[in-house]
TrEMBL record:
This is MCD, Malonyl-CoA decarboxylase MCD. It comes from Rhizobium leguminosarum. It comes from the Bacteria. Transmembrane segments: none annotated. Pfam families: MCD (PF05292), MCD_N (PF17408).
């Protein structure tokens, strides 16, 4: 028996005994069922006994898990409406702080401002498998169409607590290979979010060869559930297309022949942990481990999708650009050459110039890697011709370069100045875009971007 399963069994035993004590012996289950969930939650907050607290937490989570969608939604609404801060205590703490800005007054204000549901969630976490059930509860919250203030307040509580519970210090990095237990490998197939794994044979091709690696983060309270995993190809050069990495007939090499580690897929596994960042720690830890085990590796790069590019381009795309509407355009060499000529400069603008209202790069994958301190190294035209990639990015893929000596400076450039650090090759593409905007005289044009795209992509036709 594993240590994790022993601990779970022990918690379950304590919980069962607590139920018997709390709800009158042999008829505990029937008695508990007559008490409504709000009352059970109030009982849990006032509970002082460990066994009784675990029994209440388990009862609440079991009852919540049995609810239909509408009932589960009402439970989340109840958490917001009935378990916010104690407003009387909060008002008193505010008055005390205004009169006396001492450390004690600040502590009292902090305690009074905390919603009661945060302590409730902490106590629910004590139940057997409580962490996993709370992750599923937040997953349901995120899937809700409700975007009210209550929704955001409750999600803020989950995010605050999960940020502590899933701190990097609690995570363990584990290699995933062909000898990993099948029940975990099944989850790798299930959770792969970038390049679909069609079945066991394809998974074997990604894990078994000497020039392939996979690593995942796990949490002790979700022992058999990967949180995030990364797939790595060991190569002699930086690939331009995903086909070069996943081709069934590719040439395999020994690991010690490789000079480049390519992170070609990073998948977050738990929807209920969305927004809780693990990937940045994962990549940096994997780089360190690979450098230690394979000192011949000199380059650490990604081969990444660009999920927001087609949507961004569509906002300014001219009616006259019909080439991209034809699913067969990549097979026509002349058309593909023309599309490449105009698409890559616009892609450079997408990464280097365009920003969200908050001043961040518009592409979500770019925000992740550039925020981690990577450099935008290369834009790869038709790097992925799968249906998904053609729909999201017209086939575009990107290499981000992780150079350890530059990671901090690159991160600071983006965080402090909003500057994306890019290779000279990518910057030169942006210059081509600028020249087309200025009529070739090197001066920035004043036309709206939609008009620039229209004249560039449409060739000025009407």
């Amino acid at each position: 028996m594993s240590e994790a399963s022993f601990f779970t069994d022990m918690l379950q035993s304590i919980t069962d005994r607590g139920r018997q004590l709390l709800f009158s012996g042999a008829r505990a289950t029937q008695v508990a069922a007559k008490v409504d969930l709000q009352t059970l939650c109030e009982m849990l907050l006032s509970s002082r006994g460990e066994a009784s607290g675990m029994a209440l937490a388990a009862e609440i989570l079991d009852r919540w898990g049995a609810l239909e969608s509408e009932g589960a939604q009402k439970f989340l609404l109840m958490l917001h409406e009935k378990f916010g801060p104690d407003t009387t205590k909060l008002d008193q703490a505010i008055d005390k702080y205004r009169a006396d800005k001492s450390s004690a007054a600040i502590i009292a204000l902090h305690q009074a401002a905390e919603p009661r549901r945060q302590e409730l969630l902490r106590r629910l976490n004590h139940a057997p498998n409580g962490t996993a059930k709370l992750v599923r509860m937040r997953q349901q919250l995120l899937a809700s169409k409700d975007q009210s203030a209550g929704y955001h307040a409750l999600d803020a509580d989950f995010t605050h607590l999960f940020g502590s519970w899933f701190n990097r210090g609690f995570l363990t990095l584990r290699p995933i290979d062909w000898t990993t237990p099948a029940y975990i490998l099944e989850k790798i197939i299930k959770y792969e979010a970038v390049h679909e794994i069609a079945g066991w044979e394809e998974l074997r091709r990604r894990l078994a060869p000497a020039d392939r690696r996979c690593f995942a983060f796990f949490h002790p309270r979700l022992a058999d559930e990967p949180l995030v995993f990364v797939e790595v190809a060991l190569t002699r050069s930086v690939p331009r297309a995903i086909g070069d990495v996943l081709d069934e007939g590719r040439e395999q090499i020994n690991a010690d022949e490789a000079t480049t580690a390519v992170f070609y897929s990073i998948s977050n596994c738990q929807d209920g942990l969305r927004g809780i960042s693990f990937g940045n720690f994962l990549i940096k830890q994997v780089v360190e481990d690979l450098r230690r085990d394979l000192p011949g590796l000199k380059n650490f790069v990604t081969l990444s999708p660009v999920p927001g590019f087609a949507r961004w381009l569509a906002k300014a795309r001219p009616e006259t650009l019909t080439a991209l509407d034809d699913p067969n355009w990549p097979d026509d060499k002349k058309t593909a050459t023309e599309v490449e000529r105009v698409l890559l400069p616009l892609a450079a603008r997408y990464f280097l110039v365009e920003r969200t209202p908050e001043g961040r790069p518009v592409d979500p994958v770019a925000r992740f890697h550039l925020g981690n301190g990577a450099r935008l190294e290369r834009l790869n035209f038709l790097g992925d011709r799968s249906a998904k990639a053609m729909q999201q990015a017209h086939g575009l893929m990107v290499n981000y370069l992780y150079k350890l000596d530059d990671i901090v400076a690159n991160h600071e450039a983006l965080a402090q100045r909003g500057e994306v650090i890019a290779s000279p090759a990518v910057k030169s593409l942006l210059n081509q875009n600028d020249e087309s905007r200025s009529g070739g005289n090197g001066q920035q044009g004043s036309r709206p971007f939609a008009q620039i795209v229209n004249s560039t992509l449409g060739g000025g036709r009407k």
